[in-house]
Amino acid sequence: MPPLGACAEMLWPDRPVAWRCARLREMGFAVGLWNAWEHDLDALAASGATFSIMNGYKVGRLSDAPGAATLLASAREVAEIGRRLGVARLNLHGTGLGAGGRPVRPEVATPAGWIRARDTLARIADLGAELGVVFTLENLNTAVDHPGVPFARAEETLCLVAAVDHPNLRLNLDLYHAQIGEGNLTGLCRAALPWLGEIQVADVPGRCEPGTGEIAYPGIARALREMGYAGPVGLEAFASGDPEAALAAFRDAFA
């Protein structure tokens, strides 16, 4: 079984986040976070959780010079928070996200934007090497959750990460987003394998735990084992009912 984690902000919404982190630790899961700086960092650290991934920036963009400078400064600031918590991976997106996951500034990727994005990510990778941290670039879907985000498709994020080809920049392949936008999930996993830093999962539709929708996650788990992937898998999903039952279903799908 690969190492499993779960996004604390999406489970037990009536409980403090530090409590959720401690409960995930008790159940044997690592913890994913979105914006760790919005929570009590001392309480998060005291939870004893192993933190697998969190957002690695507050503001900034990949595709223009001012946005890149802002992103790099923000990533440096957030990396210090990540190191304080021992977070394994710091996550990035094609552009800055605001309320509800909508882009702060909707964009359409241009040829010049692609070149700038690749150069920005190369600088991010160098920053990761300097600080001893790993950044990941996540694919998103633009049809349901994140309209207006550039470099969103898994095909696009993979192209950028492969073009940089640096051990401190990896791909966070989110299969929920990929199913909505592209499909061919095992094919995507196989193509991305050399650059994978993490795989994230939720079912479609509904963004709940495996077994609630159309994705055959046990088959994907089997394919990942056959292709030799032994890296982390994170549940970035809401619970369709009881969170502990949702976590059990996630664990069973990847057993």
Highlighted features:
255 residues; alpha/beta; TIM Barrel
Give a description of the structure.
The protein has nine helices and eight strands. The protein has 255 residues and is an alpha/beta fold. The protein has one domain (4-253): TIM Barrel, CATH 3.20.20. α1 links the parallel β1 and β2 (30-32). α3 runs parallel beside α4 (111-131). The termini are close together.
Say which CATH homologous superfamily is assigned.
Answer: Divalent-metal-dependent TIM barrel enzymes
Question: How many discrete structural domains?
Answer: 1
**Shape field:** globular
* CATH architecture group name: Alpha-Beta Barrel
What's the CATH topology label?
A: TIM Barrel
Helix content: 40-55%
Radius of gyration: 17 Å
| Global structural class | alpha/beta
Question: On the 0-100 scale, what is the average pLDDT?
Answer: 97
Provide the low-confidence segments as ranges. Answer: none
Number of helices: 9
Summarize the structure.
The chain is built from nine helices and eight strands.
List the helices and strands and how they pair.
Blueprint: E1 4-7, H1 17-26, E2 30-32, H2 41-46, E3 51-55, H3 65-85, E4 89-92, H4 111-131, E5 134-138, H5 154-164, E6 169-174, H6 175-181, H7 185-192, E7 196-201, H8 217-226, E8 233-235, H9 243-253
Parallel strand pairs: 1-2, 1-8, 2-3, 3-4, 4-5, 5-6, 6-7, 7-8
